[in-house]
Design goal:
The chain is mostly helical. It folds into two domains: 51-67 and 214-358, Orthogonal Bundle (Cytochrome Bc1 Complex, Chain D, domain 2), CATH 1.10.760; 77-208, Cytochrome c-like domain (Cytochrome Bc1 Complex, Chain D, domain 2, Orthogonal Bundle). The chain is built from 14 helices and two strands, in the order αααααααααααβαβαα. The chain has helices at residues 2-23, 25-29, 39-43, 78-89, 100-103, 149-158, 170-175, 178-188, 195-207, 215-220, 229-239, 276-279, 311-319, 345-356, and strands spanning 258-259, 288-289. One of its GO terms (cellular component) is periplasmic space.
Length: 372
């Protein structure tokens, strides 16, 4: 009897223990709900771990990234660079009225900040920045019609509304200047001044012009205090609600493709055909190459014709689906990437704050001594 009673006592104790354990179950089995990370915490990580961006169907993810290095070697090519720089700043390369630097002014981030360029006459398009042009090889000018740097430079020199020069008679013109004979000899080993060498030297110098390190670059390198909370919010909006990554992506924030945003009328009221000039394809009417956004805050006004004065105005237009204001109109078909986003004023300010983080220090370029 004692053994039987002991056995039942043990069973009761085990049963009571199990019952108590089950009673405590709900407390121990309650799932832990993770606290949602702040935007700063989500972005203070490798870009591969950032929140998923909003991209249109068929658009590959090309994440924002650090800027690669220009192919120009400043040491090995220093003598050609020195020659190219002099040619870039010398008005005699053209008709004598202005030089490449007249529109591409280093003091204003290699643009002139005018609505449209002013050379010998007033151009119908805005001056694009010279920064990072090495990345545009084969897509030069707003419409991409020039495939090589030599082609682009020659057209600018010979244009009757830009520099009004003649690249075929230019070698003889420069050969009459003793200072150029020595510069060409240092750069190329002899005093022969040819059209090809002139264009080559200017091309090398042009490709050496790059933007500097930005706050956003520092952030990408792990210096997370480089961006403010508002700038991180702007970065997030840029990649998500703003849908900007569809076209402005990669290290220079451009897909290098051609898109139609409307605003096709030039200063005379004529429709600018854009990419159609280069391809002859009806589908390319009104399309222009996506501008890179490094130093975008400094390179106003905006659009191929300089018709948008400020970034806030540009963002407001994009947010509203690019309504054609001030008598503007679409030439061809508006890009399917354009949507009515309804960005608030606060959201636009945050995106602009992020774009400010893409600014580098003002270029410190000493103008060369022009040979006589």
């Amino acid at each position: 009897m004692l053994c039987s009673a002991s056995k039942w006592l043990i069973i009761l104790i085990i049963f009571a223990f199990c019952a108590c354990s089950k009673a405590k179950g709900p407390d121990t089995d309650t799932p832990v709900i993770p606290v949602e990370k702040s935007l700063r915490e989500q972005y203070e990580a490798s870009s591969s771990l950032w929140p998923k961006p909003v991209l249109d169907e068929g658009i590959p993810l090309r994440e924002l990234a650090l800027m690669p290095t220009s192919p120009v070697d400043p040491v090995a090519q220093r003598k050609v660079l020195a020659l190219g720089k002099v040619l870039f700043f010398d008005p005699r390369v053209g008709r004598g009225d202005n030089s490449c630097s007249s529109c591409h002014n280093p003091a204003t981030y290699w643009v002139d900040r005018k609505k449209t360029a002013e050379g010998i006459a007033t151009h119908h398009r805005n001056t694009p920045s010279m920064e990072n042009v090495w990345y545009l090889n084969g897509r030069l000018f707003h419409d991409g019609r020039a495939k090589t740097y030599a082609e682009q430079i020659a057209e600018a020199i010979e244009s009757p509304i830009e520099m009004g020069g003649n690249t075929y008679t230019l070698p003889a013109k420069l050969s009459a200047v003793d200072g150029y004979l020595s510069l060409f000899a240092e750069a190329y080993g002899d005093q022969d001044i040819s059209r090809q060498r002139i264009l080559d030297a200017i091309a090398v110098y042009s490709q050496s012009i790059v933007s500097g390190e930005t706050a956003f670059d520092k952030f990408l390198k792990g210096q997370y205090t480089a961006l403010s909370d508002q700038q991180i919010e702007g970065l997030h909006l840029f990649r998500t609600k703003g849908r900007c990554l569809n076209c402005h992506n990669g290290p220079f924030l451009t897909d290098l493709e051609y898109h139609n945003l409307g605003y096709a009328k030039d200063r005379t009221g004529a429709l600018d055909n854009g990419r159609f000039v280069a391809t002859g394809k009806e589908s390319d009417k009104g399309r222009f190459r996506t501008a890179g956004l490094r130093n975008v805050v400094q390179t106003y006004p905006y659009m191929h014709n300089g018709s948008v004065a400020t970034l806030d105005e540009m963002l407001e237009l994009l947010s509203q689906g690019m309504p054609q204001k001030n008598g503007q109109q679409v030439n061809g078909e508006l890009s399917p990437h354009i949507k009515n986003l309804r960005l608030t004023s606060t959201e636009r300010k945050a995106i602009i704050s992020f774009l400010e983080s893409l600014s580098s220090e003002q270029p410190q370029t000493e103008r060369p001594v022009i040979p006589q």
